[in-house]
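This section describes the prediction task in plain terms. A model, or a person checking by hand, is given the sequence of a single protein chain and must write out its three-dimensional structure as a string of C-alpha cells. No templates, partner chains or ligands are provided. The sample shown here is typical of the held-out split.
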Amino acid sequence: MLFRKTEMIDPADALPGRPDAIPTSDTHFVNGRSMHPPFPKGIETAVFALGCFWGEEKLYWEAPGVWVTAVGYAGGSTPNPTYEEVCSGRTGHAEVVIVAFDTNEISYEELLAIFWEHHDPTQGMRQGNDIGTQYRSAVYTIGDEQLAAAERSRDVFQANLTDAGMATITTEIQPLDVVYYAEDYHQQYLAKNPNGYCPDHSCGVKYADG
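The expected answer:
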C-alpha cells in the first residue's frame, strides 16, 4: 500500500500498535525530576506539537516555570506506537512535547505564546524540511479552559498574520485523548546529543508521494 506522507491515515487503516507502553525514562535527563504524573500540587500539564520534538522539548524545558518536559505522540489512532511507526504515517500521531508547568510561575497563555512564536503554524503537514503528518502543528488541550485559551490565542495570532499579509493557520486544536511517551533515546535528546540534528529527520522511512 502506498501512502502520501502529508495525508492523515484513516483510523480504520492505522497500524494495530500494542497493549503495553514503550519503555522510557522515569526521570528527566536535565533536571532529574519525574517525567510522569502525579506531579506536585500546582503543577499542570500542556501538550504541544510544533515540528520535530527534539527541538521543541528543549525550547520548553528552558522556559522559566516549567517543572519538567517529555516527548511523545498524540492525536493518532495506534495505541503505544513506536517512533518508526509514527514516521511511517500509518498511526496518525504528531510528535509532541508534554509540558508540566508551575501555574504560580508561568501561565498556559505564556506557554501558548512560546508555541506560536517558535514555529510556522501555516505549513500544514510539515515544518520546514520535515515533511509528514507527524510534524503538523497542534495544540492538544486538557479541559475547557485550555481549549478556550488556545482558540483565543490562535485568533489573535491569525489577526497579526493577516495584517502582515501572511497565510492562514493550519494548527490542529482539539481536546487531548491520550498521549504516549516516546522511547528513552528521544527524551531530552538535545541535552544528550548537543549536535544531534541531522540534515534529514525522515526516520529512514521511504515514502511514495505519487
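For orientation: The first strand starts at residue 43 and ends at 50.
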